[in-house]
Structures are given as structure tokens and as C-alpha cells.
Amino acid sequence: MKRLQICIDVASALEFLHGGDVTLKKVVHRNIKSHSILLNDDWDAKISNFELSSLDSLHQDMKHINDDAYLDPQYKQGFLTEKSDIYAFGVVLFEILCGRLTWVEGREDTGQSLGHLAKHYYKQGKHDEMVFADIKEQIVPQSLATFVDIAFQCLHDDDYKRPKASDVVIQLKKALEVQEDFEIWESKLPRDYKEIMSLSEAPDIYHTETKKDIYIRSYPVESSFQRRKW
Fold first, then answer.
1. In this structure, which of 61, 70, 137, 147 has its CB flanked by the most CB atoms within 10 Å?
2. Which helix (H) or strand (E) holds 224?
């Protein structure tokens, strides 16, 4: 859940830079990488390294980073747009999911970048094999699927098919909600809650409810206190 929250923090910052605040001009960061993301003592994420940023998709000589694995494959003639930021962030999302930097072999002149490898695994339906071992058993399948789907969309070769930062925020929050529902609320339900629900007069109503909703329905008095607490 902490990794998901970090991803949401960064996506929200990109949404703000790309015009989420109508009172500000659009800012293209143009250097989104894992080392451009800072964490404070509370693990809140912030974006740094604005040296290459601009208020528009201006031309800039960036030949020195042409082979950068974070770089938009449609980068031409020095133009990087907000969708280039989205591509780079897609690479970062897979880094966080896989627990490793983008260059698999540890060198930029050998091996295959994580972005390209992630797209290959995704198309093969094997993205679960890339998940960082220490969190693999913790992730709810639906949360993983939501996360990977939006991360893959960020890496689309055609920039106009990539999502906006605001869309990324929405999907990452959905992934977090599913994960929270499992980690926080399912643990509060009795172990045999599925069997109990199957004996209900209308068991089908539970199929579309979250674990939190089921808990509130089952323990209305206690859950009222929990809602105030949360």
C-alpha cells in the first residue's frame, strides 16, 4: 500500500504540473526518473530535478540522453511533451512494482530496459512474474491488474494513446482501494464470512460489495466508530 501511495503522490504532482490547476501554465518536467522522486520522513513523495523543465514543448538539444530508457520513443528533434512525462512515469511505475531499476543488467549499454521487458511480459500475460518477490504474495490480483494496465498504457508507443496524469491518478487510487479493502477490512471479517454470506437470503448482493461495505453491514455499531476513526 505504501508503494501505491507513493505512485499516487507522483501522479498527482504530474497532474498539477500538466495543468491540473487552471490558474497555472502547463509545465513539462522532461526528466521524470526514479532519482527525481524524493521521499520525506513520512514517505510522502515529491518531484525534484526541474533543470530541463519548460512551460511548453520547446526544442532543446538532448542528444546526450537519446538512449535513456526513460525517454519517449517518439522523441524527435528535441521535443518532449507532457505525454513524454507520462511515458517516463510508466517506466518508474514498473520499477516500483518490480523492485529494480530500468536497466536489468545494471549497465545502459547491455541488456534490455525494464520498460521494454515489462511490455513484453504484459503482452504475454506474464506480468505477475515480474513483481518484486517481497511483495508478490501481498498484492491482491485485482489491484495488480489495475496497476499494471495503467502502467502499460503509459508506455504506449503512440503518445496520443497514453493516458493523462489525471487518468493515471484515478486508476492508481482504484488499485489502492482494492488493496486497502483486502488488507484492512477483510481481516476484520470472520474467517468463514463467505460461507455465512452464501446462507443469506440474497447472497448475490455481496458479490458487488467491498469488504468494507460487508463489515459495515455486519457490524453497524462498531463500524460507525471505525468510520470516525479512519
1. 147
2. helix 220-229
Look at the chain and report how many structural domains it folds into.
2
Instruction: Please check whether residues 205 and 105 belong to one and the same domain.
Output: no
C-alpha cell at 183: 488488507
Domain that residue 209 falls in: 189-229
CA dist 59 and 191 (Å) reads: 60
> Which residue has 511505475 as its cell numbers?
93
b/e per residue 63-91 (b: at least 16 CB within 10 A): eeeeebbbbbebbeeebbbbbbbbbbbbb
Q: What angle (nearest 5°) sits at the alpha carbon of residue 147, between those of residues 186 and 142? A: 40
pLDDT tens profile 84-137 = 999 999 999 999 999 988 875 444 444 568 888 899 899 999 888 999 998 998
Distance CA 102, CA 92 (A): 8
User: Cα separation of 139 and 180, whole Å?
Assistant: 10
Task: Say whether pTM exceeds 0.85.
Answer: no
Helices (H) then strands (E): counts for the chain: 9, 2
User: What DSSP state is assigned to residue 102?
Assistant: S
